[in-house]
Amino acid sequence: MAQLFNRLGSLGLGIAIAGGIASSALYNVDGGHRAVIYDRFQGVRNYVVGEGTHFIIPWVQKPIIYDVRSRPRNVPVITGSKGRSVGSVVGPAKRGIGRL
Q1: What is the pLDDT of residues 17-37, one digit of tens each?
Q2: pLDDT grade, residue 97 (50/70/90)?
């Protein structure tokens, strides 16, 4: 009976270690984000990783995740009129889309 418990203990420890390594080898890139991979030996890799779950080599590669979503921003514009008054226009017509 003791031999059975020893085998179960070592099997459980092996599964826990394998699960920890597998967990550290996966990373997730959310929607609207992109990632570049930093490699300790080669520096920043030359490709961009899109959305989804991806694999890396633990302790050698590190994903750096960036937000690339476009966000609306309001641009205040001061306009002159026919009279001597000056107005300010901020609204849907002067709303631009940019990346921050």
Answers
A1: 888 888 889 999 999 999 999
A2: low
Per residue, what are the HEC states of 8-72?
Answer: HHHHHHHHHHHHHHHHHCEEEECCCEEEEEEECCCEEEEEEECCEEEECCCCCEEEEEEECCCEE
Which DSSP category does 98 fall into? E
For tokens 């590190």, the residue is: 62
Its pTM surpasses 0.90: no
Using the 8-state DSSP alphabet, how is residue 85 labeled?
-
Three-state secondary structure call for residue 93: helix
